[in-house]
Amino acid sequence: MSDAPDYRTSLRQLPPAEGGYFVLSYPEIPGCLGVGDTQAEALEDGRRALLAVLDALKAVDRAAPEAHAASA
């Protein structure tokens, strides 16, 4: 897998009643999520998910969504 462009991210923690996990999402790529017990785990999982989505788009000759300024 190649390096991905820097997409904007949204990182939030679920309430304890919902597991308390951290969830990372990419606004430009709906459904591409990373989940973890810690922020670092969610960021790592999200990066792997992003690379998988971008590779899948490339495999079917579809353009990746435009990356906007990254945020945390």
Would you mind describing this structure in some detail?
By secondary structure, the protein is an alpha+beta fold. The chain has a domain at 10-59. 29% of the residues lie in helices and 17% in strands. Strand 2 and strand 3 (33-36) form a beta hairpin. The chain starts with 9 loop residues before the first strand and ends in a 13-residue tail after the last helix.
Question: How would you describe the shape?
Answer: elongated
What order do the helices and strands follow? Answer: EEEH
With strands numbered from the N-terminus, the spatial order across the biggest sheet is 1-2-3
Name the helicity range.
25-40%
What structural category do the secondary elements indicate?
alpha+beta
Q: How big is the Rg?
A: 13 Å
- Helix count? 1
How many strands in all?
Answer: 3
Q: How would you characterize the largest beta sheet?
A: 3 strands, antiparallel
Report the end-to-end length measured between terminal Cα atoms.
23 Å
Average of the residue pLDDT scores: 90
Strand content: 15-25%
Give a brief description.
The protein has 72 residues and is α+β, with helices and mostly antiparallel strands.
Give a topology summary.
Blueprint: E1 10-13, E2 22-25, E3 33-36, H1 39-59
Antiparallel strand pairs: 1-2, 2-3
